[in-house]
């Protein structure tokens, strides 16, 4: 089962960066996140703007420093991250990163293989299966917090055979924001949450073929929230 995920105002920088970060980030592993960015940089279907590249390299820089501190196998390479990034054009940045990672990464998780090369930045569209969809939505909501000051509303539409789920996130830094569900248009949808500051408004329409959707929120960073989306076809 494939889904087309579309991000509104996809050509605006905050939304494009949100899309990029959503595909690349793995909250459990800086190494796999670097690998995720590398896949995007090497993807011929992706065209990045100069300020996007700067942001990507900045992120990779921090991730690499963290990885060096965390992984003994990476530390043994003893390379200068700052110099490496400054010379990424001359030294073919993605290729070097890939070669570096191949020393201790035997394979890329299936979830990346399912998502990479299926992004269209100009249209803000991602193609993913149901498993990837839960990861993407989780990361979209997590990353949306960081873009809230410059883009207060982020709308995500997920389409599958003319059915839609729509998530709208409003005013993520507003203490008065509440989690909202339009119960008239949905059935068998459970939403659980705590978050206080940063728990935004979420509007959800179910996909007809999925009879049970659970959104679980937990606080992170003190001013945002992380959502995991669990799907079940059981009635």
Automatic annotation (TrEMBL):
Under PROSITE patterns, the record lists: HIS_KIN
Query: What taxonomic lineage is listed for the species of origin?
Result: Bacteria, Pseudomonadati, Bacteroidota, Bacteroidia, Marinilabiliales
Q: What is its EC number?
A: 2.7.13.3
Q: Where is the Histidine kinase domain?
A: 22-235
What molecular function terms (GO) are annotated for this protein?
phosphoprotein phosphatase activity; phosphorelay sensor kinase activity
Q: What class of enzyme is it?
A: transferase
Q: Which GO terms describe its biological process?
A: cellular response to phosphate starvation
Q: Which InterPro entries match?
A: BphY/WalK/GraS-like, HATPase_C_sf, His_kinase_dom
The record's PANTHER family line, in alphabetical order, gives: PHOSPHATE REGULON SENSOR PROTEIN PHOR
GO cellular component terms attached to this protein's record: plasma membrane
Q: Which reaction does it catalyse?
A: ATP + protein L-histidine = ADP + protein N-phospho-L-histidine
What's this protein's name?
Answer: histidine kinase
Residue ranges annotated as coiled coil are: none
Q: Which UniProt keywords apply?
A: Kinase, Phosphoprotein, Transferase, Two-component regulatory system
**Source species:** Marinifilum breve
């Amino acid at each position: 089962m494939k889904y087309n995920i579309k991000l509104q105002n996809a050509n605006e920088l905050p939304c494009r960066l949100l899309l990029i970060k959503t595909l690349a980030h793995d909250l459990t592993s800086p190494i796999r996140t670097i690998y995720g960015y590398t896949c995007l940089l090497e993807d011929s279907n992706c065209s990045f703007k100069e300020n996007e590249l700067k942001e990507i390299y900045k992120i990779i820089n921090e991730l690499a420093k963290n990885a060096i501190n965390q992984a003994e196998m990476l530390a043994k390479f003893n390379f200068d991250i700052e110099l490496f990034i400054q010379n990424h054009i001359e030294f073919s940045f993605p290729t070097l990163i890939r070669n570096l990672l191949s020393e201790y990464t035997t394979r890329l998780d299936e979830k990346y293989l399912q998502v990479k090369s299926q992004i269209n930045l100009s249209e803000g569209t991602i193609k993913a299966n149901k498993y990837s969809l839960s990861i993407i939505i989780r990361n979209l909501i997590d990353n949306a917090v960081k873009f809230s000051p410059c883009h207060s509303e982020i709308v995500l539409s997920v389409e599958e055979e003319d059915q839609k789920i729509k998530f709208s996130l409003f005013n993520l830094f507003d203490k008065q924001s509440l989690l909202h569900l339009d119960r008239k248009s949905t059935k068998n949808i459970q939403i659980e949450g705590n978050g206080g500051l940063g728990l935004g408004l979420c509007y959800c329409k179910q996909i007809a073929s999925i009879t049970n959707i659970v959104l679980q929120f937990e606080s992170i960073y003190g001013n945002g929230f992380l959502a995991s989306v669990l799907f079940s076809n059981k009635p």
